[in-house]
Amino acid sequence: MGYFAFFLILTAACLLWSAACTAAAARSDRRRALWLFLGLALPALALLPWLLASGYLAFDARMRPNWFGAVLTVVLSALIGGIWISRAGMTAMASSSVAVASRWPVIGLFAFAILAKAVSFGTLLILDNAVAAEARAMRVEAAAIMQAALPPAVADAENAAILHTQAAAALAAATDLNAADGLFNAPAIDASSPAVGALLARHASLLDTIRRAADMPACRFARDWTRPSIDMLLAEVQSCRNEGRLLALAARHEAAAGKPAEALADAVRIGRIGRQVGSEPILISHLVGIALDATALSVVAEILPTLSAADAPLLDDPALRDLIASTPSLVRAINGEEAFGLSLFANFADGRQGIDRLGRLAGDPNVAILPQEEPFSLLIDPLSAVWRAFILPADIAGYRRRFEAYRQFVTGGVDQSRTWPQTQKQIDGIEAEIRRTGPDGFLSRLIVPATDAVLRSQCMAVARHRAAEVLLAATRERLATGAIPESIDALVPARLPSVPRDPFTTDTPLHLKVTPEELLVWSVGPDGKDDGGPRQEGVESNTDSDDIGLRMTVPDAADTIPQTSNRTAE
Question: Which of 42, 71, 104 is the last residue of a domain?
C-alpha cells in the first residue's frame, strides 16, 4: 500500500505542476511556449533517469521486484495527463477568447505541486524507515547466529590465540623471514642445507612459541563477534599461515636430519593450527585452515619416505591418524558468513552506510560508486533512500533464501558423503531456484561468496585426505614387507578397509602410479579428467593439470620398485 501511495502522489505532483505551468502560460503572451514546455518537459525529464534505471534492473539485470511497470505508468500518466491539461487549459472559453487556464490559481497550483512533491518525499521516507526498522532485528539475528557458531570460550591459560598473537609480532619483526627472496618464501629449497639450519636456529624461540600454540586445546581470538563487520581486522589469520610455513620448513629439516618423530610432530602441528584458524566462523579463516591442512598433508608425504622399520610405531600415533582422518568442516564458516552479511545489510538498511560505500565492497576501499565531492554528495542521500526503499528489501530476502539453502546443503554432509558431480548438481539446483525467484541484488552480488568455488575447495580437501590415507597405508606396507604396492587394491584389506573413492567422480577409485622416483595418488580434480597426476609444486610443467593428490618419494632402500605405471583396477 505504501508503494501505491507513493506512485499515486508522485503522479499527482507531476499533473499539478503541468496545471500550474499551463495557468502561467495562459496569463503570459511572450513566454507562453516556454511555460507550456516546462509544464510537460520537467516532469518527464525528472522521471527519465528513474525510468532508465528501472528498465535496466528489470530487463538487463533481471532483478525482482520489477518496478519498471510502475515507473512507466507514472511517466505516461504525467506526459499524457500533462498534454491533456495543457490542451484543455489553453482552450478559449465559450463566452470569450480568454483561455480556460487563465482563471486557474497559479500560485495555489504551484503550492499544491510542491506540497504533493513533499508528501511523495515523505512517503519515501516512511518506506525507508520501514526498512530501517528491520536493521535492529537483523543485528540481533546476526549476533545470535555468530554466538552459536563460535567455539566455546576458553581460559587464557588454554587459549592458543595469545601465543599466536605473540608469534605474529615476532614474524612481523623477522626481516629475514619476510624477504621476498628469503628461504622462508622459496617454493623449493634444500631443507638439509646449513642455511636452513641457521635460519631455524635464529628463530628457535619463535618456533617454540608456535609449537606451544599448536599444542593448546583451543583457540579463540579476541574479537567482538556480537557485531560482525567487514572492518574487523583478521591479521592473525595470515600470520598463522606463515607460522605453518615456518613449521613446514622445520619439519622438512628435521626429516632430513634423521629426526622423523620430531618432523611428524611438527606436521601434525601445522594441521592443528589450520583447525584453530578454521574454528573462527568466517569463510576466509576456513579457507586458510584448508590451505594449512593441505600443507600439513604435503609435509607428511615428504616425511614418510624417511621412515625406517624402527619408525613404524610413529604411524600409529593418534595425533597423526587424526590429522589424516579429519577433514575441515564448512558448516561453521557458512553460518558465520551469513551473520556477517546480515550485519552488513543492517548497516545499509538504517543508513549507517550509503550507496557510495558499495565501491569498498567491490574490492577497493578507496573507490566509491559515487564520488563524495560536490555536487555528487548531494545525490548520495536521496539515491540511498530510493535504493533502500525499493531495492534493498528484495536483496535481503534473496540473501536469506540463498544462505538457508546452503546451510541445509552443507549440514547434509558435503564434507564426506557427496561426490563433486552430486554437489555441483545440487549447487546448480539452488542457483536455478534463486534465479527463478529473482536474482541477487547489488549487495548480495558483492558479499555472497563464490559458493561453488568454496565447495570445490572442500571437495579438494577430501581428495587430499583420501590420498594421504593411501600413502600412509603404502608406507605401512613398505615398512612391513620392503615392497612398494603396485595398486591401491594391493593394500586392501590388510592396510585399507576399501579402495578410497575419487570425490570428483561418481563412483571411481583414486588413481595410483609408481615410478622409480616416486609414488603418486590422485583424484581427477574438478574437470573430471585424468591429467596423469597432480602438478609438482615449484616445478614448471607444460600440462595444465587440475588433478588433486599427493606424491611421495620412493626410498632407495625399498626391496621392490615396480618399473611400470599402474592405475587401480576398475
Answer: 104
**What's the pLDDT at 561?**
41
Residue segments in the chain with a per-residue pLDDT below the cut of 50: 180, 364-378, 414-415, 542, 558-570
Instruction: Identify the pLDDT of residue 201.
Output: 94
Question: Considering its fold, how many domains does the chain have in total?
Answer: 2
Strand partners, 548: 523
Which of residues 60, 83, 104 is at a domain's end? 104
Q: How far apart are CA 411 and CA 282, in angstroms?
A: 16
Query: What does the pLDDT read at residue 188?
Result: 63
Task: Convert 426-481 into a string of H (helix), E (strand) and C (coil).
Answer: HHHHHHHHHHHHCCCCHHHHHHCCCHHHHHHHHHHHHHHHHHHHHHHHHHHHHHHH
Contact 353, 347 (CB under 8 A): yes
Q: Among 496, 497, 488, which residue's Cα sits nearest to residue 522?
A: 488
Laid out side by side, the sheet with 511-514 consists of: 511-514, 518-523, 548-553
DSSP one-letter string for 106-135: HHHHHHHHHHHHHHHHHHHHHHHHHHHHHH
Assess if residue 55 is contained within a domain: yes
Kindly report the CA angle at 499 between 496 and 501, in degrees rounded to 5?
A: 130
Query: 239: closest CA among 169, 342, 302?
Result: 169
Domain that holds residue 484: 452-570
Nearest in space to 293 (alpha carbons), one of 334, 259, 326, 335? 326
Task: State residue 260's pLDDT score.
Answer: 96
Q: 54-72 as b/e, with b when 16 or more CB fall inside 10 Å?
A: beebbeeeebbbbbbebbe
Q: How far is CA 203 from CA 170, 199, 237, 243, 264, in A?
A: 9, 7, 20, 12, 20
Task: Give the predicted TM-score (pTM) of the model.
Answer: 0.81
Distance in angstroms (rounded) separating the CA atoms of residues 74 and 205: 73
pLDDT at position 355 is 73
Given this model, what pLDDT does residue 377 score?
46
The sign of the dihedral angle between the CA atoms of 542, 547, 550, 551 is negative
